[in-house]
């Protein structure tokens, strides 16, 4: 048997998690003399001392729950004995009080990217096909297959063609207040730097989201100027074959231009990296997410842009984030996004506790508070310089909170709409996640998952739990992998298999 | 120039619509002496007499609006001069008051269908792959391509493989009251008769919608008994290639059984046909939808099941439907579904007026009231024998109201979940709609659309507007086409091109 190990995070914690695969049996004695008085599964918590009924259960130095009954030292602390705390009140938060001494700038790091006319830099060279309405998606998917088969071989510098499918555009309450989210998102999606500014739009003709409205966008977007011949309206075409031919003609024009793009060496400050976690376990907050946080700090030190997201996983740690806001305005924007989501969930008659999954719980996460503490570790230590509503594009570099649902597919789509050119996705339990528009680096929180899914997981942070690597080690390793993948020197597994999620744009407004 | 024509529907109507392509110019004199005092576009309304400010504008014998100002005979009646009426109050409706003398039964009509063990009859022979969560969709799509390429040629009696993709299963508020809709729908989707009872489920492992929960379903579903080896859990697999191989093995077992299925002659009473309209114009309610209504009556007379749907398009005609309820219970269920949708829309700060599209308006439909009158024509004249909440399966034969959004994609997915084996889709403006699970017959309201989209539209009802055919003629033609397509004797255009919508399951609950 391996040596019994636990991980305690902060000095004041009164619980720690069991490291060993398959957990540890009752009677196990750790090096420090602590003895388990019941079996504890891997990743689950053990009481480091007696905890009286009503007393706080502390992990990450934060109260993640209250004891429902007296808990003896060496007990397994699971959901049954844990009372979830209420969410932090939004009106009594400290804002911009934590003056972080900026870490020294990191100079000299570069990657090989595609410089666009608007100054942005892509990591891939992709033809994105925008659609104003879901009704055209069958046709666009049909044409995309022909492009892949017949046209892409003629344009070897182009990495692929991606129909920007969504379920929006008609049969929706387009004047609902929340409709700003999908409209803005589909608009900004077209501008993702990986599409090189080569925008073409397929429209049906009678849809609610008329191309003019999509291209104009919302009050907070920059209108898209589309060449007249880059809009194909299916209702103007003489039959299906004519539609296909017309779309192919327009696509080929863009492919010719995309094919002229060449990678060039650019500073790492041109990167826009999204951070996400999914299928989290108790190790996520100890190994993978802190490593991502460290890499995030490195990127910020390079002058790059880093987004973290997932409102329902940030909500219970908001009191740790508002102090890190760069100023009052940013702090208030953070609170505004939390408030919006509280109301969105309340309208559906649920609250933030709806987030945790059976897998999270099996992995040792008792509730959303504990999950949130692990999730926000992805944000590192940098000041938060900007807050984006879902689908907005950043105007600053540095650490940015991009408000999105925590749902993996929706967060992914929304970060792409916000302009990320690479995503880092950490997972505890494992998920075959991938995005067609930007490369995704998948990091597991434990080695066992990386070993089992050897052809899906790109990097493991598991050595941290075993004491074989530090957060800094893995953080640097991830940072270099980000530069390699951004440059096209390394291909993550999702791109190897072309294993991609359907694009799930967030529509918080009703369908009609 | 063609002879000027208008269509007046009911004797008491004070408006009629212009039939001629491209509309009619000011000065046009009709056979009855009516003279246009301004240009009127095709499908748009002309005032048959002077209508004073505040007076009702009547079409279909119903008030579709009130005159905002005095309107002279021969004027164009557009949105600008029309005040929309309020929706019918739900607490003062007549229920089951209209005792319809049943039309005589139609005997002897049959089709060639696939009889299932549970007694249901399919019109196609398809392997449907159920997923408990969106996270597995990339893998399932990957495998489906391999099945198509390598396995289907070995099983020539199988028509295809369809990944039952959805955006549900995790990152959702699974205990929200409205979560019953997607859970029930994904559950019942697996039971669609076209899949022959050959159910296999792909799960990730850590998702909220655990396979047990999906298979158990909701209080109103019949639990699915799944063989142990028909569940593949990706987190249990040793890497991606192992996942693919495992899914292929399970798929092949089902393909072998599906390949044994043979079409046999069954009575038309075994049909379950869904009716939907999309991209409607002013002709939809005059030509295509009444023809669908006539065919619906024919099907009901054969003892078959017919579903109509689209709550927001029924809401303003609900006072015409509750009297047609077979009994008090069905009438109350109709009202319950309207009420649910009123509240759903109100939670999103909109109302039923959010339905009409720019295309509807361009096509002559001023508002949702006028659109609704045309939409409910699809229901024919039969009594309404049952009402289904979204995704429920019918327990009766005859005319059924299956509550769904009007959104084409969502209505399609929900009707498939409710068990339709064929859909009739009428369109005014034209849309390249198609479903992978059931054949879709697309009918246009005008000949010009069928001529322009000659390789997409299966049948036109346009001759009705020209006086060259009656509603009965086209209704019978559609009825025979339904039997031919159900039997596999005729292939609709969507199947010819394999032009299919992404499956859009209705999730009225929040994402998290
Ligand atoms: Ca997460
Ligand atoms: Ca996530
Ligand atoms: Ca990619
Ligand atoms: Ca409709
Ligand atoms: Ca519809």
Automatic annotation (TrEMBL), chains A, B:
GO molecular function ontology, one term from the record: galactarate dehydratase activity
InterPro entries: GarD-like, GD_AH_C, GD_AH_second, SAF, SAF_UxaA/GarD, UxaA_altronate/galactarate_dh
GO BP, sorted A to Z: D-galacturonate catabolic process; galactarate catabolic process
Enzyme Commission number(s) of this protein: 4.2.1.42
Keywords: Lyase
Keyword Lyase: yes
Every SAF domain range: 13-83
Claim: RNA-binding is one of the keywords in the record: no
Endpoints of the signal sequence: none
Family: Belongs to the UxaA family.
Name this polypeptide is given: Galactarate dehydratase
Native organism: Gilliamella apicola
């Amino acid at each position: 048997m391996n040596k019994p190990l636990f991980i305690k995070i902060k000095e004041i914690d009164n619980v720690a998690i069991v490291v060993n695969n398959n957990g540890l049996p009752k009677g196990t004695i750790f090096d420090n003399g602590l003895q388990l008085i019941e079996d504890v599964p891997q990743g689950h918590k053990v009481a480091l001392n007696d905890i009286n009924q009503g007393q706080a259960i502390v992990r990450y130095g934060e109260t993640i729950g209250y004891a429902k009954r007296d808990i003896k030292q060496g007990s397994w602390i699971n959901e049954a004995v844990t009372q979830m705390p209420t969410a932090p009140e939004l009106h009594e938060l400290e804002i911009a009080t934590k003056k972080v001494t900026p870490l020294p700038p990191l100079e000299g790091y570069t990657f090989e990217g595609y410089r666009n006319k608007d100054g942005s830099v892509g990591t891939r060279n992709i033809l994105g096909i925008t659609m104003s309405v879901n009704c055209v998606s069958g046709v666009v998917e049909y044409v995309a297959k022909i492009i892949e088969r017949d046209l892409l071989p003629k344009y070897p510098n182009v990495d692929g063609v991606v129909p920007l499918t969504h379920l929006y555009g008609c049969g929706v309450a387009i004047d609902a207040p929340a409709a700003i989210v999908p409209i803005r998102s589909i608009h900004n999606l077209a501008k993702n730097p990986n599409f090189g500014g080569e925008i073409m739009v397929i429209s049906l003709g009678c849809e609610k989201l008329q191309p003019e409205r999509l291209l104009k966008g919302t009050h907070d977007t920059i209108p898209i100027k589309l060449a007249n011949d880059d809009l194909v309206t299916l209702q103007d075409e003489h039959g299906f074959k004519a539609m296909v031919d017309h779309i192919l003609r327009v696509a080929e024009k863009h492919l010719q231009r995309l094919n002229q793009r060449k990678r060039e060496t650019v500073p790492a400050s041109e990167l826009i990296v999204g951070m996400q976690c999914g299928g989290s376990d108790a190790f996520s907050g100890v190994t993978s997410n802190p490593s991502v946080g460290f890499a995030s700090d490195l990127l910020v030190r390079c002058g790059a842009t880093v987004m973290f997201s997932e409102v329902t996983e940030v909500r219970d740690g908001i009191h740790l984030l508002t102090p890190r806001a760069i100023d009052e305005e940013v702090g208030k924007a953070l609170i505004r996004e939390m408030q919006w989501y509280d109301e969105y969930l309340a309208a559906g008659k649920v609250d933030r506790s709806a987030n945790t999954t059976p897998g999270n719980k099996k992995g040792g996460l008792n509730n959303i508070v504990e999950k949130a503490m692990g999730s926000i570790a992805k944000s590192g230590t940098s000041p938060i310089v900007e807050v984006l509503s879902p689908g907005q594009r950043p105007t600053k570099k540095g650490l940015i909170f991009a408000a999105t649902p925590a749902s993996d597919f929706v967060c992914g789509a929304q970060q792409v709409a916000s302009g990320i050119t690479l995503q880092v996705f950490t997972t505890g339990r494992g998920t075959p996640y991938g995005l067609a528009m930007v490369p995704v680096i998948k990091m597991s929180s434990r080695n066992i998952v990386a070993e089992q899914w050897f052809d899906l997981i790109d990097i493991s942070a598991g050595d941290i739990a075993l004491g074989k690597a530090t957060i800094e080690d893995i953080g640097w390793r991830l940072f270099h992998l980000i530069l390699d993948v951004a440059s096209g020197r390394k291909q993550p597994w999702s791109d190897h298999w072309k294993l991609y999620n359907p694009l799930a744009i967030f529509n918080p407004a009703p369908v009609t």
